[in-house]
């Protein structure tokens, strides 16, 4: 199979980035003073609790959201709007149900006026890359959730993005499919070496995938810590890596970081599961 050349991997620089959302009295700061970079071809995961501003950060990098302060650059160019050079994959696919798989994958090329025969050939290559050769003529509704996400990845990669932005792309999949998709994504990335920013709230997923993890605090999201991973590439199988001592040590560290930074103390509970306050405080020793 003729694989595409290595993609021209992007170099990302984010400096002092703040983003406010809402308006008037409802305005609030969603992310606060974020700074990090992604080296060309690097796989970076952002790990943080729900609501900490992960999707907001990705929306800004995709060019859908304007920051209120700081700067965002890809290859020295400020991000000023959406571009196929920064391909985005969400938790739920965005395939057009009335187009066949091949035409969904080739959609970006059609928009750019690439002739039909070339579109089809390149869509076929992409489908091979994601392990879906033979599915070109199917409709999206005929595929499983994992397969739909593979088509979505092919649809984005056909544009040869410099940066792949992934917002919890496997979050809606069952655990087995999810692990299979993680391995497949690493396999694709090993061949293409595009830069990836992958968002997740799943510690195992971040540890399995990343070269580097940026751990975020609850809202307004800040970067708490940057963790560089030196697990071997290509990664060992899930069964080996996830049960190794090195993995367990880092997982514990991430759990402590996220727990410590949760800010909210979990309420103490009575034996009936009610929060302890003056009304429910038991008159007997628990
Ligand atoms: N358009 C919006 N207007 C107001 N609040 C928003 C908007 N989008 C997201 N939020 C809020 O901003 C915070 C950060 O959201 P988000 O970036 O989606 O978090 P995450 O992806 O980490 O779960 C959340 O508290 C969310 O409810
Ligand atoms: Mg989100």
Automatic annotation (TrEMBL):
SUPFAM superfamilies: P-loop containing nucleoside triphosphate hydrolases. The keyword ATP-binding applies. PROSITE patterns: ABC_TRANSPORTER_1, ABC_TRANSPORTER_2. InterPro entries: AAA+_ATPase, ABC_transporter-like_ATP-bd, ABC_transporter-like_CS, ABC_transporter_ATP-bind, P-loop_NTPase. Keywords: ATP-binding, Nucleotide-binding, Transport. Residues 12-243 form the ABC transporter domain. Pfam families: ABC_tran. One of its GO terms (molecular function) is ATP hydrolysis activity. Belongs to the ABC transporter superfamily. This is NitT/TauT family transport system ATP-binding protein. It comes from Pseudomonas delhiensis.
